[in-house]
User: Which sequence fits this backbone?
């Protein structure tokens, strides 16, 4: 195989870095519940740790996104990866102290919350800057493919993380977290040396204060919030409904849910890999395919009474993720000016995190009222998003992205 060209090496470094970030996050979700219980924390206290981290991410993401527009992408990505490495290592250390009894459960809880707030605040710098960097280096007509590669890297990390945690569990419950911290530190060094520092239009970016109610962006923000709210409800409810309908023991439940999540993750990665090979000039249409795929998956989950049907439903959810994530990011990007890309990516990231923060609470409450209610509610939400998206595409208000493509084509033809 030929070595990577110098032009492709920076993008490869960035994609591997985001894969590592995603893998570390999924390792945390596999590690924190048993470690927290070993410390003596209740389930709601463990959930509080993640929720407050999400709040910090939501607050910080738009700020870092705007700064990446004015200060350049590389510095924000390095900051996010460095914070990821530092706070993940600290988190693992506090877990060790708590499990050893050196810290009381209350002291452990306070320390873990503080560390995760630091984590959420700093790692939020990497996400919008990485997305904006991909946008910077890809022409508009290839933007969906570039963002699909980024989404595929992130999705692959989500699949690989739990497998890594299971493979190295014999070295200690928190060892995979230390490994993730070390990998993030190496990624920060690679980004620092491999990505070109290019500050972006400081004056224009400093003057631009992109608002969530900007008419060019608000539909995409609403879709991001609603879609990830549904995804979070599904993830929250899946373990409960699999155990209740299939009458499984806890260990069997974990294995069955793992198969479902693996199928979903691999489907999403496969779809995004395919999109990365295609030229998609109207990414909003990917949502018109992805949202019905999600509805079909939710319908299967509503009716599922066997493991294969649950897996089939999660394949639908994975296909929806594979289509909607790059489609949403690219559609929002094409609606914005060049100097607004980081700010827009930050707001989209905050909306996604908001959905993930609210979804588990809503999903758990609905499940107590009826085991199919989280999935039925998800069908209603995705159907409403589909209608809104269809209306937006039909009335021509998404043509801004196509105008940008045409403008760049004209400029290229004149030179």
Assistant:
């Amino acid at each position: 195989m030929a070595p990577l060209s110098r032009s492709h090496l920076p993008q490869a470094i960035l994609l591997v870095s985001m894969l590592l970030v995603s893998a570390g996050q999924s390792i945390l979700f596999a590690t924190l519940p048993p470690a927290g219980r070993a410390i003596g924390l209740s389930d709601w206290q463990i959930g509080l740790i993640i929720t407050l981290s999400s709040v910090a991410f939501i607050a910080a993401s738009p700020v870092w996104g705007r700064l990446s527009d004015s200060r350049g992408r590389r510095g924000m990505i390095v900051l996010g990866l460095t914070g990821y490495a530092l706070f993940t290592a600290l988190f693992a250390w506090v877990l060790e102290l708590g499990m050893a009894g050196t810290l009381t459960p209350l002291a452990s809880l306070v320390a873990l919350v503080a560390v995760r707030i630091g984590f959420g605040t700093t790692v939020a710098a990497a996400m919008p800057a990485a997305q904006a960097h991909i946008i910077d280096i890809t022409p508009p007509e290839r933007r969906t493919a570039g963002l699909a590669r980024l989404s595929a890297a992130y999705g692959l990390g989500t699949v690989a993380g739990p497998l890594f945690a299971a493979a190295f569990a014999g070295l200690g419950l928190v060892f995979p977290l230390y490994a993730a911290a070390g990998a993030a530190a190496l990624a920060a060094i690679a980004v620092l040396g491999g990505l070109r520092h290019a500050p972006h239009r400081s004056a224009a970016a400093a003057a631009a204060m992109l608002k969530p109610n900007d008419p060019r962006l608000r539909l995409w923000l609403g879709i991001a919030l609603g879609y990830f709210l549904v995804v979070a409800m599904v993830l929250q409810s899946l373990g409960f409904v699999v155990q209740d309908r299939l009458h499984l023991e806890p260990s069997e439940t974990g294995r069955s849910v793992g198969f479902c999540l693996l199928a979903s993750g691999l489907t999403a990665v496969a779809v995004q890999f395919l999109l990365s090979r295609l030229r998609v000039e109207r990414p909003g249409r990917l949502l018109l395919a992805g949202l019905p795929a999600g509805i079909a998956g939710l319908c299967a989950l509503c009716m599922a009474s066997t493991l294969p049907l649950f897996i089939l439903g999660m394949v639908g959810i994975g296909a929806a993720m594979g289509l909607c994530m790059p489609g949403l990011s690219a559609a929002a990007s094409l609606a914005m000016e060049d100097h607004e890309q980081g700010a827009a990516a930050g707001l989209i990231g905050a909306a996604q995190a908001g959905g993930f923060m609210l979804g588990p609470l809503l999903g758990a409450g609905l499940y107590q009222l009826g085991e199919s209610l989280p999935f039925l509610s998800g069908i209603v939400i995705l159907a409403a998003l589909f209608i809104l998206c269809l209306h937006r595409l039909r009335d021509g208000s998404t043509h801004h992205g196509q105008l940008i493509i045409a403008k760049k084509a004209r400029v290229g033809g004149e030179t």
Q: What stands out?
A: Residues 1-6, 397-401, 410-415 have pLDDT under 50 and may be disordered. The CA atoms of residues 5 and 259 lie 37 Å apart. The two ends are 36 Å apart (CA to CA). Residues 9-39 form the longest helix (31 residues).
